[in-house]
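As a representative case, the lines below give one protein's residues and fold tokens.
***
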Amino acid sequence: MKDKPILRYSANERTNHWVVAILFIMAALSGLALFHPALFWLSHLFGGGPWTRILHPFMGVLMFVFFLGLVLRFWRANYFIANDRQWLKGIGRVMRNEEEGVPPIGKYNPGQKLLFWTLLLCMLVLLLSGVVIWRAWFSQYFSIGSIRLATLLHALAAFVLVLSIIVHIYAGIWIKGSVSAMLHGWVSRAWAKKHHELWYREVTREESPDSQISKKG
């Protein structure tokens, strides 16, 4: 029983995640093709310039819709708790894989929580600014000044989003077992206890050593 792995992500959650990931890659590549002439060759991946311009906003809307699925599933787990501030102060120890002296955390660490809310903010900005500059449907309702501002905000949000995803991928590779959890759904009890001890106690109903000592006392 002690060696039995713990389910971290269900099949539906993993599918939702990878659909968002695929749509992000497609939206990013098509967006880069439209962003600068030097990158226009990327439009060949989508059937040329006209098709890239047609498909890009639809892929962006789909990405946002599926990302909302992740938000509805995980927003509660991404609330900040008291231990998170102390964890951030000990981020250097975490990076050195010395988490024993760092306060226990829940299902997501503070870095993951910051990433979650950053992604949500970027997605919202991309959606709203994208509607303004979506010439085929909505841009006629906005002034040229609004369109220019929306274009700038769209580019900035996309830049932050791409950087955030790069950090997300790097962190997933850095913490061994994270990528496997999103591929197969399961993590070992040792992994869960080391990296997310509060979540580990919650799913296993195992009490902390301090609480056991207090009961004996």
Q: What stands out?
A: Residues 9-174 form a domain with the Fumarate Reductase Cytochrome B subunit fold (CATH 1.20.950.20). Residues 211-217 have pLDDT under 50 and may be disordered. Residues 20 and 66 are 6 Å apart (CA to CA). The chain has one domain: 9-174.
